[in-house]
Amino acid sequence: MDRELTLICSTCAQEIAQDDGYLWVNRREADTAQQAYQALEQRQTDPLNGSVSFDLADLCALPAPAAWRADHRDCDLEREDPFHYRIPAARLHLRADLLDWTAHLTEKVWLPHTDWRDLLRETRTGSARLAVSGPRPPAHLAAF
Q: Which DSSP symbol is given to 29?
């Protein structure tokens, strides 16, 4: 099977070509971001009408979304951490595989508090954590 997606190890910057690694996110970081957002939402909800309003300072004070990373098993210094959610590189050969994972991950309440959307966008042109090959979307769609 031709490979459209190749993960790039965040530790050694080499391809994870032998399916000896994974894409992962730290669930603690995602949970922290989720809790901070929920606390802000609760503080900023008008008790009379239920409307929510945020100012820019509040939003800037929120923790960054948890970042998805790619690592070889041998490069991951935290490979025993039970709070890491891992997707094996062997399950990410095609862009369509990311669609399947997206459908699965939307069931997770912590997903919006990660940078998964950014990772999906990277499948158009590649990035430091994801190399892409194969057919690319038409240029007029690359801006979206």
A: H
Structure confidence at residue 135 (pLDDT) = 58
Q: What is the DSSP letter of 47?
A: T
134: containing domain: 5-38+65-141
Residues 141, 144: Cα–Cα separation, whole Å: 6
92 residue type, one letter: L
Please identify which residue in the block is written with the tokens 């095609």: 94
The reply to whether 16 falls in a domain is yes
- 51 versus 112: which is more confidently predicted? 112
Burial of 8 (0-12, 13-18, 19+ CB in 10 A): buried
**What's the pTM?**
0.82
Alpha carbons 94 and 2: distance in angstroms, whole number: 8
Pairwise CA distance, residues 25 & 49, whole Å: 37
> How many domains is the chain partitioned into structurally?
1
Residue 131 has pLDDT above 60, yes or no: yes
